[in-house]
Design goal:
This protein is α/β, with parallel strands linked by helices and 314 residues long. The protein has a domain at 7-161 and 188-219 and 277-292: NAD(P)-binding Rossmann-like Domain (Rossmann fold), CATH 3.40.50. Helices cover 41% and strands 16% of the residues. The chain has helices at 16-27, 40-49, 88-108, 129-143, 165-174, 193-206, 223-234, 245-258, 266-273, 283-286, 294-303; strands at 7-11, 32-37, 54-57, 75-78, 114-117, 148-153, 156-157, 177-181, 187-188, 191-192, 212-215, 221-222, 239-243. A 7-stranded parallel beta sheet has the order 3-2-1-4-5-6-11, with helices on both faces. Strands 7-10 form a two-stranded parallel ribbon. The chain has a two-stranded parallel sheet with strand order 8-13. Strand 4 (75-78), helix 3 and strand 5 form a beta-alpha-beta unit. Helix 1 packs across helix 6 (193-206), helix 3 packs parallel to helix 4 (129-143) and helix 5 (165-174) packs across helix 7 (223-234).
Length: 314
């Protein structure tokens, strides 16, 4: 069991989950936090918000001085992930090679506990670079023999969201027309990152070991209804129009030719329309975390006076 005096390493902690997790851990009094990430501008945002924690630039796929922070650590939360893009090497480096190094350092320094943030895509019908490497990453963690818990969240949203609903909301504000592929009736199970951070904290404080949990949003929502909710919340004026799926796909493929790190790829479009339905477990009871209703979570995401104004970079 860990507490506010424990030294916690957040590997890949300058992204969506990491930024939110630091907020929640800090509010609970955790003071020995070490964030390792290779996104300098997002690390700078984190350091500006929380000057008392350690934020260090680190390419976790390469050996380096960053491993010194593992000395005396009590737990590691493994968050680093390549989510989007078309370059397989990026997925290889950021999802697999980084994991192997982190697991090695955990063993070398005898760190007793690991929380691995996997993904619901390991159960998806879609096979792409992300799902393939996240599946292999999870296998590596389980095969390591390190005492751990594996959490598999679905699509997340919340403060500091640079890609998913955050990107959609910013895009919606900039353009007069917001396109929807097909009819937009695609099942979504969005998970509020604030709830997910409370689950991680519960795992730390109760030292959950040896289990894998599918952490899905408790509410089933159609994609187009989700977009309409965002539009209403941010008071955007964009007109929502439906575009035939095949035309939408072609337009995305063309966009991806000119953008090396697109926020939304043709493969992600295929995943959107696959209508995956992920297991919904009673995680509120398991982790003693109250699920935030979707409408309330959207309001908190886009109307918080401080955190909703901060945008991370890709």
């Amino acid at each position: 069991m860990f507490n506010k005096f424990s030294k916690i390493i957040l590997a890949g902690g300058a992204g969506l989950v990491g930024q939110n997790l630091v907020v929640h851990l800090t509010e609970k009094g955790y003071g020995q936090l070490v964030v390792l990430d290779k996104h300098r501008s997002n690390l700078a945002i984190l350091q500006r918000l929380w000057p008392h924690i350690i934020c260090e630039y680190a390419d976790l796929s390469q050996p380096g001085d960053w491993q010194q922070h593992f000395i005396g650590a009590d737990a590691v939360v493994m968050l680093q992930a390549q989510i989007g893009g078309n370059d397989y090497q990026a997925f290889l480096h950021n999802n697999l090679e980084s994991t192997q190094l982190i697991l090695n350092y955990i063993k070398i320094h005898h760190i007793p506990y690991l929380i691995h943030v996997s993904s619901s895509v390991v159960n998806s019908v879609i096979s792409d670079y992300y799902s393939q490497t996240k599946t292999e990453q999870e296998r590596m963690v389980l095969a390591s023999g390190i005492p751990c818990v594996v959490l598999r969240p679905t699509l997340m949203f919340g403060w500091f969201d640079r890609k998913h609903l955050g990107w959609l909301s910013r895009f919606m504000k900039k353009i007069p027309i917001f396109p929807i592929p097909g009819q937009g009736h695609y099942l979504r199970q969005p998970l509020y990152v604030g709830d997910f951070c409370q689950i991680i904290i519960n795992c730390l404080e109760n030292c959950q070991i040896g289990s894998m949990y599918n952490i899905s949003g408790q509410e089933h929502i159609n994609y187009i209804d989700m977009i309409r909710t965002i539009k209403k919340t941010i008071q955007a004026r964009a007109l929502i129009i439906k575009i035939p799926y095949h035309l939408f796909y072609i337009l995305l493929k063309v966009w991806n030719l000119f953008d090396r790190n697109p926020p939304f790829t043709a493969k992600q479009l295929q995943a959107l329309v696959a209508n995956d339905e992920f297991e919904v477990i009673d995680w509120p009871a398991i982790f003693n975390v109250k699920a935030t209703p979707f409408m309330q979570a959207i309001d908190e995401t886009f109307n918080n006076p401080l955190y909703s104004k901060i945008t991370l970079e890709f």
